[in-house]
Prior knowledge:
heterodimer, A: 91 residues, Folate-binding fold, four-stranded antiparallel beta sheet, two-stranded antiparallel ribbon, globular, B: Alpha-Beta Plaits, 2 domains, five-stranded antiparallel beta sheet
Amino acid sequence: xxxxxxxxxxxxxxxxxxxxxxxxxxxxxxxxxxxxxxxxxxxxxxxxxxxxxxxxxxxxxxxxxxxxxxxxxxxxxxxxxxxxxxxxxxx
Amino acid sequence: xxxxxxxxxxxxxxxxxxxxxxxxxxxxxxxxxxxxxxxxxxxxxxxxxxxxxxxxxxxxxxxxxxxxxxxxxxxxxxxxxxxxxxxxxxxxxxxxxxxxxxxxxxxxxxxxxxxxxxxxxxxxxxxxxxxxxxxxxxxxxxxxxxxxxxxxxxxxxxxxxxxxxxxxxxxxxxxxxxxxxxxxxxxxxxxxxxx
Lengths: 91, 195
């Protein structure tokens, strides 16, 4: 699988590290809502299809990137730098 | 200047290796630049950082991913968004940048003793490196002066094409001997000389 890093261009997946599900949103750090924290830590949508993910180009420029990848075909339809992905994306 | 001790140790064996009676496919050497520094610009300050590098080192860097320039005694190239690796044969470049770099533009980190600089040059340099790194080494995709950040079996490597058939590789010093041995094995097929 190739991932096209916004800085480095297409690179082998072995240069990247999966950083988790990009669909979840971290609750307010001051929140004591145990249900919200439980959902953030444990609940996953487990989609068969287009999935929002966070990866890091750890064996390259070390940029964190937001990826949309099909879990059934591995086709990647979108790659963005996390800094451009907007507030709240995959935190 | 304190004399540098090579981390390559006994693995550094000058002379011909591989196809010793044939032509030399690649020449390997360890460079020992006086300074290796990393310059990191805050977001939006990349142009100001490039201007500062031009003022201090006289190196003009293109504003492209991995963009760089290489001169015989100094070089610089992009390694990440807003980040540049700068190498200079002169000692003490870190102090020059520390004094001149405003804190609102970015930061400088001294890596002079944290990286080893290995040079491979020759008609088979691209071929040998292609065995180790899954990136495109053709001159169209990887032009002279440009840099790449990549990895070989978890040995993180920053490299610059410093000539048509010449590459300078910067690896963590503690991994340098292992990487050097791997590089020598990869070059054996084409015949190599260590100088």
